[in-house]
Amino acid sequence: MRRILHVDIDAFFASVEEIDDPTLKGKPIIVGGTGERGVVATASYEARKYGVHSAMSTQMARNLCPKGIFLKGRHDRYSEVSRQVFDILETVTESIEKVSIDEAYLDITNKEESSVYIAMEVKKQVKKYTGLTISIGISYNKFLAKLASDWNKPNGIFEIQETDIPQLLKPLSILKVHGLGKKTALKLNRIGIFTIEDLLKYPLDNLRPLLGELRAIEIYDKIRGIDNREISTNRERKSYGKETTFSMDLQDKGYIMEILKEFSCEIVEHLKEQGKSARTVTVKIKYEDFEQITRSHSLEYHTSDIRTIFDIINKIVNSIDLSKKVRLAGISLSNITHHQQMQLDLFNYF
Ligand code: TTP
Ligand code: MG
């Protein structure tokens, strides 16, 4: 069973405005086009109480919420804050799919910690470094994780487990099925389908003429909790690592060193195949009491020379406190460059 998180920032643009100008806190903020034909990009939760929402005309929003604070929006700033949030998410896992400026899926199947623990940590870090609140959905596939992140918004965590299906979904409007748009919903409404419970009663063959072959199968599966879409990591990898949890807790420095060297050989081989080098070596240790430390060392230059990397590992491991037993050890190489780029850098240098 996979473990997927869906992360979504709460009232993103409006929240950034609030953080940058604390006098706006708790006020109805509406970000979007302020001209006559402007459209609302988003509204703070305070403004949503008046019925204001994304994609509504700003004129309509003014009617609904005359005391609202209407702001034009600063996209460079939102991109910058988005970057900060993604930097935090990337410390959790490399298996991350950016869906939009404020939304991502993370595959945490291989993590040791519980999903809820990881979700709470992520929320804490994002709050600490950016001031933003986010909502996180936890489940065993993308569809359910996204549904879950929406469940307790804002500042929510919600987990959907296999045993919740289909009961939990039954009372929901069919509009909650991501991929089933308003037009299709209207079509289904006309034949008496309003909730997922209604839709569950429909055999696949009856859905085909209404939704088309592929979408019929997709939606038929989704409402039964089936969604096998992978997380597609759409960015260059920033680090390459490997770690292991020992079958028993260890205090043997020599053995830990051997394991880390073995891992680094594998990683370097892999990097070389791709024509890449790294500049930073990071060792991660988790002790028997679950306390975790990471120690990094960066070189002045990129390398894929295994002896240089061994030397760094030796130095780092020798500087680490091993008076406590170790349950997990790992290594990663980061600050990656392509050799081609390296040559360009040298060229510019001389
Ligand atoms: P959303 O995540 O859909 O909305 P949100 O973050 O403002 O609110 P919440 O997640 O708490 O429901 O979109 C993220 C940002 O994208 C949003 O802050 C503004 C922008 N956006 C638009 O510009 N136009 C739109 O129609 C939508 C839906 C979003
Ligand atoms: Mg959002």
Structural features, described:
The structure is a single chain. By secondary structure, this protein is an alpha+beta fold. The chain folds into four domains: 96 residues, Reverse transcriptase/Diguanylate cyclase domain (Alpha-Beta Plaits, 2-Layer Sandwich); 62 residues, MutS, DNA mismatch repair protein, domain I, CATH 3.40.1170.60; 58 residues, 5' to 3' exonuclease, C-terminal subdomain (DNA polymerase, domain 1, Orthogonal Bundle), CATH 1.10.150.20; 108 residues, DNA polymerase, Y-family, little finger domain (Dna Ligase, domain 1). Helix content is 40%, strand content 24%. It has 13 helices and 13 strands. Strands 5-6-1-7-8 form a five-stranded mixed beta sheet. Strands 9, 10, 11, 12 and 13 form a five-stranded antiparallel beta sheet that branches. Strand 2 and strand 3 form a beta hairpin. Helix 4 runs antiparallel to helix 5, helix 9 packs across helix 10 and helix 11 runs antiparallel to helix 12. The protein starts with a strand and ends with a helix. The model has no long low-confidence stretch (mean pLDDT 92). It binds thymidine-5'-triphosphate and magnesium ion. The site of magnesium ion (MG) has 4 residues, from strand 1. Thymidine-5'-triphosphate binds next to strand 1, helix 1 and strand 3.
> What is the CATH superfamily classification of the largest domain?
DNA polymerase, Y-family, little finger domain
For the biggest β-sheet, the strand order reads: 5-6-1-7-8
Unreliable spans: none
Tally of structural domains? 4
The main sheet comes to: 5 strands, mixed
Strand content: 15-25%
The counted number of beta strands is 13
